[in-house]
Structure of Plasma-membrane proton-efflux P-type ATPase:
Amino acid sequence: MEKVKISSAHQSSDRSVNKSSHNQNCDEWSKLDLAQLQAKLKTSSDGLSQTDATQRLAQYGPNELVEEKTNLLLKFLSYFWGPIPWMIEAAIILSALAKHWADFFIILVLLLSNVLVGFWEEHQAGNAIAALKAKLANKARVRRDTQWQNLNASELVPGDVIRMRMGDIVPADARLLDGDAVEVDQSSLTGESLPVVKSAGETVYSGSIIRQGEIEAIVYATGANTFFGKTAQLVQGERTASHFQRAVLKIGNYLIMLAAALVLLIVIVALFRDDPMITTLQFALVLTVAAIPVAMPTVLSVTMAVGARLLAKKQVVVTRLAAIEELAGVDILCSDKTGTLTQNLLTLGDPFYIENSINKGSAEQVILYAALASRSENNDPIDLAVLQSVKAEQHLDSYHIEHFQPFDPVSKRTEAIVKNDDGKTFKVTKGAPQVILALSANIEAVKTQVEASIDEFAARGFRSLAVAKTDEQGKWQFIGVLPLFDPPREEAIQTIADAKEMGMSVKMVTGDQVAIARETASKLGLGTNILDASGFGATEHHQATQLDDSIESADGFAQVFPEHKYHIIDVLQHRGHIVGMTGDGVNDAPALKKADCGIAVSGATDAARSAASIVLMTDGLSVIIDAVKESRKIFQRMNSYAIYRVAETLRVLLFMTMAILIFNFYPLTAVMIVMLALLNDAAILSIAYDNVHYQNKPETWNMRLVLGIASVLGIVGPIAAFGLFYLGDKVFELDRPHLQTLMYLLLSVAGHLTIFLARTRGPFWSIKPSAILMAAVFGTQVIATLIAVYGVFMTPLGWGWALAVWAYALVWFFINDGLKLVAYRIFDPTEAPLLEKS
């Protein structure tokens, strides 16, 4: 990897040390008071001089993210490195040494095909860092040499004084200086569903947005040292190897060790027999070709690609093919709350109201007065929630708004002067409960009731909005409290129930407070064991195991920051879980990248989409259940192919090795081996379209089961082959060329029939094969039979022997099916029930 910056900066010998020290101090500096911070940064409210800023730019580097760039040539060449590529390359070299040029070119084409498929699939994954960088501010208003200047945000350094106003993206981590409070939207960083009010001395993070107000701030962290920058580093630093890749590697290693042992055995025997080295070399070639699962990466990739197209029809876009296999194995799904489990749309609950001369005990009246203090064109989520709750019969349009004062972070309320149909004028206001209460003339009479209602709403996770109206004397009278909450999606409760039935545990992850998270989780049927993530960083080393236990058993997490999500997933993965993570914001990107299966929900940011492996194009989580079902079917197809491929490799390897050791006879030629592999792999590609059943539990690669069942089928195969070999050689006294054709046809027919054994756990007829699979298998077997009958590249066998081979193979097919059922009872006695057919 080479690290490339967008713009260069002067380097100094102590720069890395200074940056490291600064990085360690950033968290501490965010807690200092402003006077101490200015002293540490050697700056003031007048900002830096241009000379100081230039020196600091050289010391700390530009205020931008470092992007990792991959050398595409080296990445492409890496696909030629690994156990399976080594085997294929060894076969190519042996083909050249033995001058078997047909084998050479066929195997070379297969190798290049595997490399191109793998390289292109990963190349399409995209770069999450580019999307993250797009969220950073491009310009900043900075005070240099006591003058305000508009500079590129990349030129900011610690100690700079900046000015921000409504609509600005915060360009770096900064502490607010003296001035009116501002309203900051940091939802893309923390996941909080509403903007927060920040006052002098408080911290604002790079990438958040100023929604209301204007204020100056002092920069204390830039570039990779910012909260946002650390998020980006988490994204680019995580490279999780999939379980699919590890499974393919295990199968490859199994076949490599087996082939190496058998080749070594043959070489030793050949040396004792004084066999010609060219003969031994040719056998090594044939055996190597037989052992290589040449098409295994391609077949499994094609199976997943076909599944990806099926998922696309259900509005699920797969950006990394291996994620399909990962999704099938997910046993814990960590779901973002806002917009995923909930509607991300504020809604009013049942109001609390005060009965007095202004309000005659009507909740609807409280909502009406709150609506008069709202304005739809401001597109404020609270105003919209209030206006949508007004009933039509209340005739909101019969009131005339003479003046409207919008919400600002200083007053923390809205106010309107209203004239009704009778010509009477009055004022209404809504805002923070403590502000409205302090404004009211009837505070003493209602304070206890109001505070009790606020506490009750808070305990249930609701945000409170107070409402007041002036009386005939123009005095403010407190009339009620409106509870605001983000309601669950209608389908979310059923989706979570479906997930539990399928063996998945759902954990809610949110930046909201614990009370809000607990109330939402309760309504969703998740449970109320909500863990406060804000305390993760204070955990002592000796308490780490206890914290990990709490994370594993929790129903959800509140007050979560990006590093918390990352930590949660890391803990669950180390506990042996396969973790799925849904999200939509920049704050979710590290966790989406870290998860075994990152899922970006509908409307997600570019950063989240780039970091995720799966992108949902429709709202909510319900489509995930469909995706999980489909992925488990796809996994069953891949599992079937793995069993088939190992069984067939064993069948050919063992039969050929024993034939040479015992009879000193090569039962197949190199051309026969290559044709056998080509026809088998051509047919097995159709398994991507096969009918399968999915399980009601997460799928994982059970190598003991795969290799166990495959070994049983692979060992019984040579027994059947030697039975036919004995009949042909000793009983019917066929010559060696005819025997080779006879054995070729048997291995081809029996091998294809093994597909029907490998694809079911029960009897071969328990799941009807797809029409495509049937056509592919019998189509290739017609070709194999015609080749043997008429002698293409081999001695002609004739129709009589060909039909006899088919009959013999079918008898053993029924025997093998019975043995397979016994093997499953031994290797997998607690088999999970299979559900709905595709």
